[in-house]
């Protein structure tokens, strides 16, 4: 039963993160007029699909990612290549309306052609030798034309609907939208948790044993109004004051039973390990605060927790990158699908609230990792767009495709190594 709960939780968490990320790309792509032939969650063989307008929505077997196929993004290969024999249907202007790649159709008055040249990105044409007269002909592709494959119609994107022919700011927004939507998901989850749990106040709820708070004499119901020279109105004020005082002796003023009491306290220094090479220092009093349910404070709390999560993950990523140059890098710093599954298995046992909090952290992590300047990731492709905006011309298409391909191979190799490392770490 526990195994089943972990599997379901993993699929839900992974599915939400990938869906939100890819939907961000598609949301801005469609608003820029870019055609999106497919929106996929997962990789590998299709297990479910449906079509809405020009987009095929698919769920694929392997829960290891997802993608939005955008016309003219340089990552897709057209199904027709020189040397192929295909059938075409023409309109009354001798323009191609259908390129037929299967026998599951009922079209009449079609022509067989051996393709010699074709272009589906710039001039949009097919040139080849037709069967009926053995002559070479050049046919332009109509503004509304389709590939007919496996019984389905896949629209061929006209030039003005392709990613490559959009303005730099439209390309930038489309690429940045994936990480942006991950950041927004983090914000939504933290705000939702704050509304559900309430926001912490400056009133003490419980004091843990053998902690600075217990040694100072803090009691349940105490209202903390001042720490050293810092006036206190909220839990965040307490955290800020303690972080500045560090582990030095200081005074805390509390309101107790209508009177003001002054207590002496020395916060405890705690090293929280973020990665193998990076730790974060925190100073704790050792108590829990009461919570309250208000209309606007959860929004502020959600924003603060999102910023803290972003800072935490960003620092960890910088530490990981620095470790590559210092020779301290280890694949243990990275988690693939197997590592994420193992973490889900641990977190889900602690309750749904912790699982949601961890999902929020994972979402901001996915967003920031995708902004790394690696060609196959969003960050690398954004660099190409910035180059185009600065120099007023796109990078050479062959060079861009080659760089992206190299980046994709690099990411794939890293994923394989990380996955194997996770398997050894957790299961062998």
TrEMBL record:
Gene3D superfamilies: 2.30.42.10
All residue ranges annotated as the PDZ domain in the record: 191-254
Superkingdom to which the source organism belongs: Bacteria
Biological process terms in GO annotation: proteolysis
Keywords, sorted A to Z: Hydrolase, Membrane, Metal-binding, Metalloprotease, Protease, Transmembrane, Transmembrane helix, Zinc
GO cellular component: membrane
Cofactors (names): Zn(2+)
Transmembrane segments: 6-24, 172-196, 312-334, 346-366, 402-420
Enzyme class: hydrolase
EC nos: 3.4.24.-
Subcellular location: Cell membrane; Membrane
Topology term for the membrane: Single-pass membrane protein; Multi-pass membrane protein
Presence of keyword Transmembrane: yes
Single annotated GO MF: metalloendopeptidase activity
Entry-linked PANTHER family: MEMBRANE METALLOPROTEASE ARASP2, CHLOROPLASTIC-RELATED (PTHR42837:SF2), REGULATOR OF SIGMA-E PROTEASE RSEP (PTHR42837)
Family recorded in the similarity comment: Belongs to the peptidase M50B family.
Protein name: Zinc metalloprotease
Species this chain originates from: Staphylococcus nepalensis
């Amino acid at each position: 039963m526990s195994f089943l709960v972990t599997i379901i939780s993993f699929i839900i968490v992974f599915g939400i993160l990938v869906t939100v990320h890819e939907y961000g790309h598609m949301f801005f792509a469609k608003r820029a007029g870019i055609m999106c032939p497919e929106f996929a969650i997962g990789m590998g063989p299709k297990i479910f699909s449906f079509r809405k307008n020009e987009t095929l929505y698919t769920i694929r077997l392997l829960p290891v990612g997802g993608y939005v196929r955008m016309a003219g993004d340089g990552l897709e290969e057209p199904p027709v290549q020189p040397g192929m024999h295909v059938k075409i249907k023409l309109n009354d202007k001798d323009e191609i309306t259908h390129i037929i790649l299967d026998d599951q159709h009922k079209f009449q008055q079609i022509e067989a052609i051996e393709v010699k040249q074709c272009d589906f990105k710039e001039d949009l044409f097919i040139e080849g030798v037709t069967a009926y007269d053995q002559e070479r002909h050049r046919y332009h592709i109509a503004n509304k034309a389709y590939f007919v494959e496996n019984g389905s119609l896949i629209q061929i994107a006209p030039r003005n609907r392709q990613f490559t022919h959009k303005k730099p700011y439209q390309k930038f927004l489309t690429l940045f939208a994936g990480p942006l939507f991950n950041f927004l998901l983090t914000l939504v989850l933290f705000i939702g948790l704050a509304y559900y749990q309430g926001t912490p106040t400056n009133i003490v709820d419980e004091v843990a044993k053998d902690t600075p708070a217990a040694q100072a004499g803090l009691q349940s119901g105490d209202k903390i109004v001042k720490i050293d020279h810092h006036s206190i109105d909220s839990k965040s004020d307490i955290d800020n004051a303690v972080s500045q005082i560090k582990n030095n002796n200081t005074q805390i003023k509390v309101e107790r039973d209508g009177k003001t009491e002054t207590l002496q306290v020395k916060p405890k220094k705690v090293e929280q390990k973020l990665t193998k090479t990076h730790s974060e220092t925190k100073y704790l009093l050792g108590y829990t605060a009461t919570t309250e349910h208000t209309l606007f404070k959860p929004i502020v709390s959600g924003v603060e927790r999102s910023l803290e999560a972003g800072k935490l993950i960003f620092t960890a990523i910088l530490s990981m990158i620095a470790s590559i140059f210092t020779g301290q890098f280890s694949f243990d710093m990275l988690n693939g699908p197997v590592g994420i599954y193992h973490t889900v298995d641990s977190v889900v046992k602690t309750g749904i609230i912790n699982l949601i909090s961890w999902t929020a952290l994972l979402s901001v992590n996915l967003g920031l990792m995708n902004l790394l300047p690696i060609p196959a990731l969003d960050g690398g492709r954004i660099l190409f767009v910035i180059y185009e905006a600065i120099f007023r011309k796109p990078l050479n298409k062959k060079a861009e495709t080659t760089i992206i391909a190299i980046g994709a191979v690099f990411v794939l190799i890293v994923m394989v190594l990380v996955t194997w490392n996770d398997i050894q770490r957790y299961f062998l």
